[in-house]
Amino acid sequence: MTHRNEQGFWEWAYGDLLSNTNRGVLAEYIVATALGIHDTKRVEWNQYDLEFGDVKVEVKSAAYVQAWEQSRLSTIKFGIRPARGWDSRTNISATTARRSADVYVFCLLEGEERDRIDPLDVEQWTFYVLSRHELDRQVPEQKTIGLAPLIAKFGPRKCVYGELKAAIHEAAAENRGA
Predict the structure, then answer these.
(1) Which of 35, 27, 37 shows the shortest CA–CA distance to 120?
(2) What are 7-33's pLDDT values in tens digits?
(3) In a domain, 94, yes or no
(4) pTM of the model
(5) Into how many domains does the chain fold?
(6) Closest-CA residue to 58 (of 153, 156, 149)
(7) Helical residues (DSSP H) of 35-163, grouped into ranges
(8) Domain assignment present for 109
(9) Does some domain include residue 170?
């Protein structure tokens, strides 16, 4: 390599948007764009994924189809465990495990046919928005939750890309009213 080829690197390292890691980062980016967050960069390992005004947002992603060959579609589960979050601004980790975000956005990349899935098409994503208060109130120590229990037990706001900003505002208001 005789010169820097940043675009080539991005394509080589992150071109598979179905892989779990890349899909998760893409989901964060999609939510950030829905919120109009364009002036900050993603902070790896921060205690929450996005900050929108005074609202801290955690983004989780899942898909039925994975980057690898599958004998059956994946069961949809999201991580929700309390953790000792690290604050990138202060370089300090929390002393106790808790959920650091105010709002959770569970992003589901729909589709069951690999050839038809385009992770960059926001119309192929469904979003479920829920306040942290509801998680803490009903499942304070739970580590994961499946899609069906999430919907049945919590009734999160199901929305499309264009409705995300309003749904996040509503969930944040629920936290303040709790």
Answers:
(1) 27
(2) 888 898 999 999 999 999 999 999 999
(3) yes
(4) 0.92
(5) 1
(6) 156
(7) 132-138, 147-149
(8) yes
(9) yes
Residue 3: pLDDT band (50, 70, 90) is low
Tell me the CA end-to-end span of the chain in Å, nearest whole number. 57
DSSP classification of residue 134: H
Which of 94, 92, 74 has the alpha carbon at shortest distance from 84?
94
1 is a domain residue: no
Burial 86-114 (b: 16+ CB within 10 A, else e): eeeeeeeeeeeeebbbbbbbbbbbebeee
Residue 155 confidence (pLDDT)? 95
Range of the domain at 131: 6-177
Which pLDDT tens digit goes with each residue over 106-156?
999 999 999 999 999 999 999 999 999 999 999 999 999 999 999 999 999
- 3-class secondary-structure state, position 50: strand
Q: Look up residue 31 and give its two tokens.
A: 């939510």
Residue 60 in contact with residue 104, Cβ under 8 Å?
A: yes
Q: Which two tokens stand for residue 166?
A: 């309003």
pLDDT in tens, 39-80: 888 888 778 899 999 999 999 999 999 999 999 999 999 999
Alpha carbons 128 and 120: distance in angstroms, whole number: 18
Answer positive or negative: Cα dihedral of 129, 134, 138, 140.
Answer: positive
